[in-house]
Amino acid sequence: MDQCPCSFCQKGDTDYCLKKIDDTTDDMLNNRNTNAITYYEKAHDEGDPLASVCLGKIYDYLYIMLDKDIYLEKLDNSICYEKALYWYKKFYWYKISLDNDTINIAARIAKLYHTKYETDKNVNDLQLCINWYEHAILKETKDVGEHMFDFGMLYIKTIKPPNYNLAIEYFVKAVDKGHWRAAAKLSCMYFRGIGVKRDYKTSDEWKDKADGIINDTYSDVGSLEYFQQKLFNIATSERV
């Protein structure tokens, strides 16, 4: 586990520190309290490289959450977007220099470019989004299936015209990594004949695959019932 020496989290635990980011940004929005940014900037200046990813997550969250009526002094969407990219990339290249895992950071950068493209429709942002997703699926990590699924959805929902062949390729890869939503998506595509020839038997097979992944992944009854209900909702809504 990475150790985080910053004065903000006071736990020495990066995972804990990152989980607190949402609470921190809510406090910033509600109370105009920017202390967390100050803490992390100080930690970065004192040589803590992990502070950069914390700053990236804060600005990433603010970029998504802030609307046009921004009341945090000196913060607006464009500034938050640029700063999120700056801090994420700073941490990314630091990790590259150590030959460490950079997959999740690459995916966060890809999602930032995706969000920016949806707003401005700048094709350069879309290409950068694709490039960073390609980084995000290079290595075996516990989240690589999620990144493959998101990459596949990009080829269906964002890229025009849709490239169903590439989308299906990434969905199948995501299923191989244990991603049940990718199996559910394939089930719906075969059921409705979207990008493939309609095939109810194949649709049922992918739905069963999704159900099997859920059963294998979630052991407690509450989680199992929750995700089985989610699968049912997806299957019924997208098949209409």
What does this entry look like structurally?
With 240 residues, the protein is an all-alpha fold. The chain has three domains: 1-98; 101-177, no CATH class; 183-240, no CATH class. The chain is built from twelve helices and no strands. It has helices at 14-19, 21-31, 35-45, 50-65, 77-97, 103-120, 123-136, 144-158, 164-176, 180-192, 200-217, 221-238. The termini are far apart. 38% of the residues are buried. Residues 1-16 and 67-72 have low confidence and may be disordered.
Question: Could you give the topology of this structure?
Answer:
Blueprint (H helix, E strand, L loop, with lengths): L13 H6 L1 H11 L3 H11 L4 H16 L11 H21 L5 H18 L2 H14 L7 H15 L5 H13 L3 H13 L7 H18 L3 H18 L2
Helix pairs in contact: 2-4, 3-4, 4-5, 5-6, 6-7, 7-8, 8-9, 9-10, 10-11, 10-12, 11-12
Count of separate structural domains = 3
Helix content: over 70%
Shape field: globular
Strand tally is: 0
Strand content: under 5%
Largest sheet: none
